[in-house]
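A further point concerns the way the authors explain their paired sequence and structure data. The central task, working out the structure tokens from the amino acid sequence alone, is never made concrete. I therefore recommend that a typical entry be quoted early in the introduction. An entry of this sort, consisting of the sequence and the corresponding backbone structure tokens, reads as follows:
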Amino acid sequence: MTEQMFRIVEECYGIMIILVRGILLGFLINAFISDDVMDRAKKIVISVVITAEGATLFVVPFSTRGAWTIISLLTILAVFYFYDKRILPHIVFVYFLWQNMFFVWYIMNIVLSDYISIWFTQNIDYSQGDALAVFYGRMMVQMALEIVFLAAAFIAIYFCIEKICVHKRDMSWTEALYLSIYSGVSYVIAYLIAEVMVVPLEKEVFILLDEKKNLKLVLPILAILIFIGEMSAIATWQRYRRLKEEELLLQEQVREQEFLRKKIEYTEKHHDQIRTLRHDMAGKLMILKSFIENNRYQDASQFLSEMDIELNAGGVKYSTGNPVTDVVINEAASQAEKLGCSFDCDFSFPVEKNISAMDMAIVLNNLLDNALEAVVVIPEEDRFIKISGTSKDNFYLIKTENSYDGKVIRGADNSIVSKKKDASESDKHGIGLKSVMQISDKYLGVMDVKTENKVFEVKVMLQNTGN
């Protein structure tokens, strides 16, 4: 192999390193951002653009050291700022994680490359005419092994992250910055190592690994510690997010139970008032009947004019067979009527399924609240809400349908986010459906959401657990 051919191979080596890094970036974006938030085609496009930037900067005939880091970061920030600001924290963290994983490989590769080059060059007979060609050939093999090592390391890294990040969770700016600190420290360490690894002097070249042999052990340990630290930080963040979601769900359920309790108490007081009124009216009607039977019409007329009749209709429109679910459904029906929204209910409480009335009320309350929230923003003539309950074998299926504007907002974890604009409640957006999902899990069931033709449909299947 000639020197000219070797230089071409070096160029290809650099391009391959950039290509493998670009592929890893696409996979990392996919690991943290759901396909429903950003489809795979867009993820591929962004990784291709970043890869193309790196390749272009690599082949230009002047030094562009460090330029790819800056340009790729600015590109990602600009793209996601205009595409979807909600996932900017995710992409910033992913970018620094991507850089950090390359640094982990780089530090390990310094030592590996040193061992391989020593092994490849120590038995070359430089007195032979083809010694240089043999040297170039072996260096080409070394570069190929380094690329294979890079690909294998990135595959292992990606699968570790996939195991840790089972669920794609939302991320705040505070969390993104906290998680990126480790990557920033790693970047500085890798930069310092690169700066002192080979230092040209006046009459010779200072090679750190030749002078400090113990670094051949220290550097791999350092790389492993950086990797473990990064994975631990991600796992801690995942656990924190999970606990936070569970806490919010618990708070939401406590709030819902208190809300339902107050509703039921109010309804019971209202019914007591109606029963008292009916009892009083019965006595008054007996007096009126006595006047009429004795032809005391003048007294009857005067008695009627003095009576304070406060009888109210007070009855419920829908009877589900349980006072708790009666309150929830009739309250929703009343709100729907005020909004000019048609309300169709075919639901009866499944007493035989051993489902808690409070759990059922929480499910119904969340589903109907979401439906009422959705119909408010569309024209009155298009508003409708339907709810039904179907019992089959050991299961009970709750189904709600409602019209909506056709726009669904999802978080980075693919959960549906409320459209309410109250910033103080931003952490609680989407908790309603998560609460429903948690209850469906409790009863070994499932929740399914469909959004087609401007109809929002939720099906919740609960199973008789025999508890």
About this structure: Confidence is low (pLDDT under 50) at residues 309-314, 421-429.
